[in-house]
């Protein structure tokens, strides 16, 4: 549990809050590249860290991120015209470049220098790895490079990113991203389902450790190691029959990423404001492009290979024109009580919606004073300490190191089986080549 | 009128409020039995007295009512799996019995005793008379028995309960339940309608006193008598032509029931929170089951025998999957201005919707400092005094007596015609056998 | 820009606020006459200056405007029955006349004088010029006459009024009504569109100054003159080719009207509350009725003669049963990004929706501390000063003069071309006959 004060510090991200200040020291993914696909495409609203902004790509492909409202009379620049070299407010035609400079002010006489005095708040923006990134902190602390996730350098066809709205504070999403023990219930099929012929046929001959061993031990032992990106989280499950341990190494990467041992994938849980975040699902393959089928399944919201209900729609897709899932808190995620009786614990298909249910129903900001954390929550406790510690440090002038170790972010999750006498530290050493190597499909 | 302070005391029902404390001394109907029909059926959200809870019926049919959020990490147990002997949270599998005890905590090692330290807030729940009842107060003051309404003991087929959401504070609904003079307008047809052949044909030969005499006198004289369940309310109408009095005896039963002289029916107006309540419509017949036609009409929301517009839909039915009426404040109850010109005073069909309109349009909590109460409001004044008095008493340690006189709740409403020289007290004596007798159809 | 305090004073209109007090000194258009078309028609909710009221027209055609809730027990009189000589509450039948007097109280005995003590808050209401007007201020300051706009005296068929909801504070709408320079962008076609054959064909041989010259100069010079209705606003555009000036005279009439030089039309921006206003579009022709086609186009929301996209729907019509446009802030006014690329600056068709976008996206109350006002904003600055000045004066007991110069309101907007050496004051003299003359079609 956290105190009220700790929860406040952990969850509030607006300008001037301790956590808001900390998050602003990092490059932040704000959009999928598809949202600003080409020069002079329509501008996009960006609400991030409680700030209302507009992003656009100008005629030369440069990215801009500026305050939403025109400096003249406060009309929204989301409705502006993105035209030759800038974004023009539709009310009186004031025009801004990507740096927020007013570059045309037709309402003034040509000799006026009024426009030189007008500048929008603007932030640095960059393309990278299929995402659009922004830096909202003080310029003097801006890390020169984006974090070097593996997906940053692969060809476009090797990547498969999606995003959707999660209607709760980002810290609840982070908790879920770290806490791999929940896969034993939230994402798992019922015993009765696992005993069906259909299921047995499905896993027959499989070498997928996740499928075979994830639910072998409901009380995995958690261990963490502080790294230069955040935390390496080891979860050790006892394989009774084989007298071995099944290990999963997840990662928490400051300030809101998690990497799981499945398909080289990770998540970024980016705060929109105190009550909402984006869940970016980041996937890539080093050695080959995604197949058309994989891509279609993912974009349609179908879990790729471990959805126990088999081929079902993960989130029922997105509400057209939005990144909000059709299945959401307003409709109880369309829970299927028969599925909950017969197939899995949730009555929900798809890990994304299962995660949303678990996190969103806590309330927009969970009341952590009511929590009862157990032994499987120690990685969460560590991650919270890390975040709160950095936020406090920053208030005292101590800058976080992680924004300046971009190369550390190339780590991936792994899973493996080891003899029981191999320690956590020894496992890390043995896995080091995989943790930091290129990722095969 | 009431002062601001009195209104606050009357209407606020959350934990720790004077009225909230008082209400928690009583057994409270929280659900229709149909909402938890069988062992291991889906759990149901229950918001009552501003508390967010989940009700469920376990594998052995026992009822549970516990706080909504799991003690572990605050995921909603509404999404939990109701399975062998308890409700299991879908996030990490913590499982609770009907008493709120954590009976399985798979994330801890078998030898851990952590689960013994975890307990959800839970309340006593019981089946009774087609309803599900809860007691939300301190255990030491829990009345041993449920109130003995007449419908409690009749066979299931003799009962016909419905409920719907009323989007205002419960005290406004109580006022309406007591105030029988409003039937002269809110539920009455226009003179012009009463003069139609269709209407005359309809009441021809009728012996229904309500139909014949209710609107004979718009200014009935009200009298009240304090009883061991609350108030007996007598409304006396002058029958000019016959030189007699037409009497109606309604009842206000603490803390939120009313019984009317029609069909042995009554209402419970149960606070969801300060701004919403459930209107339970409770009907039963001692001597026979409801016919299929009666049942269909009632469930379809059709007023059973005194809807002046004749066979119309009372509330347009419920929005599927909810207990909210299709006709509600958001659509002005679909008022029909032509009906209001030609047929009745409201342009609304069905007493339920008429009552909702009258009560809900006052605002979520009516501003009682603006009221002008007249002679027909004296029963309301008495009932408010009774409630406020008990609330104040309780703050001073004086427990209410009513929760402990369950047998008093078997009273029913009656109507009759008497000679003018029979006093109120004499009428009560004469009606005593009917007031407390078994109810014929 | 304005300070926070000035913005508060300018925008808050509830009872007891300085601006609210000032507005209440004026007769205010509250409804279209079509909303209360005949005696005993259904009553209408009127929210104006943050007050919730009900308007009705009694059996003799008299208008009433009274507080919404019945004095008895606070049920809404919007649901009342408008019947012989008054509005009867549907709950217990209390009945009120247009002056708010309780004229029937059937729940009291005939000899009771309780009803003489009950009176609703009520305001003076009048028909005039196709509108329904109310005076919400102190009776002793009530102007004897309605403002004498030109449309007040023309036959009904010569008028064409509409209204719709604008979801922002009225002061933003006033700014837009005064600020004619925005027509160069917000309401203008792109150069690329103006070069199309279709457009050239359209304006061929036109003598419409607006069409020909409006966009000839993006930085018009603004001048204002204090008048006995408010401000005459002159905007002077340089016509380079012809070595002349194109002038437009708009008017700001206290406290929320604007008159433009197009079709004798004007606007009233009437505060509903601090966050919403009605935009009344007021049009009339002195010399002839509107044609059927003109009427249909206007009522369908089609801009009459200068919609650059040609014959398109101005606002997509109104949501049935409301005066809210289908295209509104909730759907980003259904912006068409292709139209914005190819045709005009906004991607929106119709001046009404263009204005709404510009004003509403500022937020419900624009943050005027962030504005940067330029030379084309001087009329706005003057108008704000005028309003704030009158509001401050009134707090000090100095009554505004404008409510008592109704004849001054007959002014109209004009446009014309003049030699460069004719001064603003000379222009006013020359235009005086047109400014105050009858308006031809």
Give a quick set of tags describing it.
homotrimer, 441 residues, alpha+beta, eight-stranded antiparallel sheet, six-stranded antiparallel sheet, 11 helices
Elements of chain A, N to C (H/E): HHEEEEEEEEEEEHHHHEEEEEEHHHHEH
Count of helical stretches of chain A: 11
What class do helices, strands and sheet pairing of chain A give? alpha+beta
Q: Sum up the overall morphology of chain A in one term.
A: globular
- Low-pLDDT runs of 5+ residues of chain A are 304-313
Helix content of chain A: 10-25%
List the topology elements.
3 copies of one chain form a homotrimer.
Chain A: H1 4-11, H2 18-23, E1 28-32, E2 44-48, E3 51-57, E4 63-67, E5 81-83, E6 86-88, E7 95-96, E8 102-104, E9 122-128, E10 131-135, E11 162-166, H3 170-178, H4 191-194, H5 197-203, H6 209-213, E12 221-226, E13 230-239, E14 244-253, E15 257-259, E16 266-273, E17 276-282, H7 292-299, H8 337-342, H9 351-360, H10 378-395, E18 414-419, H11 424-436
Antiparallel strand pairs in A: 1-10, 2-3, 3-4, 4-9, 5-6, 6-7, 7-8, 9-10, 11-17, 12-13, 13-14, 14-15, 14-18, 15-16, 16-17
Please, could you describe this protein's structure?
The structure is a homotrimer of 441-residue chains. Chain A is of the alpha+beta class and 441 residues long. Helix content of chain A is 21%, strand content 23%. Chain A has eleven helices and 18 strands. The model of chain A is unreliable at 304-313 (pLDDT under 50). Chains A and B meet through helix 8 and helix 9 of A and loops of B.
């Amino acid at each position: 549990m956290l105190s009220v004060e700790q929860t406040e510090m952990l969850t509030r991200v607006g300008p001037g809050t301790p956590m808001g200040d900390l998050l602003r020291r990092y490059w932040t993914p704000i959009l999928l590249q598809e949202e600003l696909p080409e020069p002079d495409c329509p501008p996009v609203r960006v609400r991030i860290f409680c700030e209302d902004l507009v992003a656009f790509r100008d005629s030369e492909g440069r990215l801009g991120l500026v305050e939403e409202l025109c400096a003249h009379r406060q009309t929204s620049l989301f409705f502006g015209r993105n035209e030759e070299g800038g974004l023009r407010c539709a009310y009186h035609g004031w025009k801004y470049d990507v740096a927020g400079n007013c570059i045309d002010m037709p309402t003034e006489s040509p000799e006026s220098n009024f426009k030189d005095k007008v500048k929008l708040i603007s932030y640095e923006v960059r393309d990278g790895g299929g995402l659009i990134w922004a830096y909202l902190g003080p310029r003097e602390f801006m890390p020169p490079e984006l974090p070097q996730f593996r997906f940053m350098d692969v060809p476009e066809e090797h990547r498969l990113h999606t995003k959707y709205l999660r209607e709760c504070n980002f810290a609840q999403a982070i908790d879920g991203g770290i806490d791999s023990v929940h896969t034993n219930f939230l994402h798992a099929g019922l015993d009765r389902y696992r005993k069906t012929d259909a299921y047995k046929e499905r896993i027959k001959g499989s070498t997928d450790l996740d499928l075979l061993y994830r639910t072998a031990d409901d009380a995995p032992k958690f261990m963490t190691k502080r790294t230069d990106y955040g935390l390496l989280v080891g979860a050790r499950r006892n394989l009774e029959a084989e007298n071995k341990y099944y290990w999963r190494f997840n990662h928490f990467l400051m300030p809101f990423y998690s990497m799981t041992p499945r398909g080289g994938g990770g998540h970024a849980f980016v705060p929109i404001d105190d009550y909402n975040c984006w869940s970016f699902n980041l996937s890539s393959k080093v050695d080959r492009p995604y197949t058309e089928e994989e891509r279609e399944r993912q974009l349609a919201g179908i879990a790729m290979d471990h959805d126990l209900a088999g081929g079902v729609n993960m989130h029922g897709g997105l509400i057209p024109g939005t990144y909000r899932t059709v299945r959401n808190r307003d409709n109880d995620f369309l829970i299927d009580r028969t599925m909950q009786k017969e197939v899995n614990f949730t009555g929900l298909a798809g890990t994304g919606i299962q995660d949303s249910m678990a996190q969103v129903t806590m309330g927009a900001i969970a009341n952590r004073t009511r929590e009862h954390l157990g032994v499987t929550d120690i990685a969460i406790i560590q991650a919270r300490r890390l975040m709160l510690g950095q936020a406090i440090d920053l208030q005292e002038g101590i800058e976080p190191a992680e924004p300046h170790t971009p190369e550390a972010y190339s780590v991936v999750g792994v899973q493996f089986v080891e003899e029981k006498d191999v320690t956590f530290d020894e496992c890390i050493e043995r896995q080091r080549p995989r943790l930091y190597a290129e990722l095969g499909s």
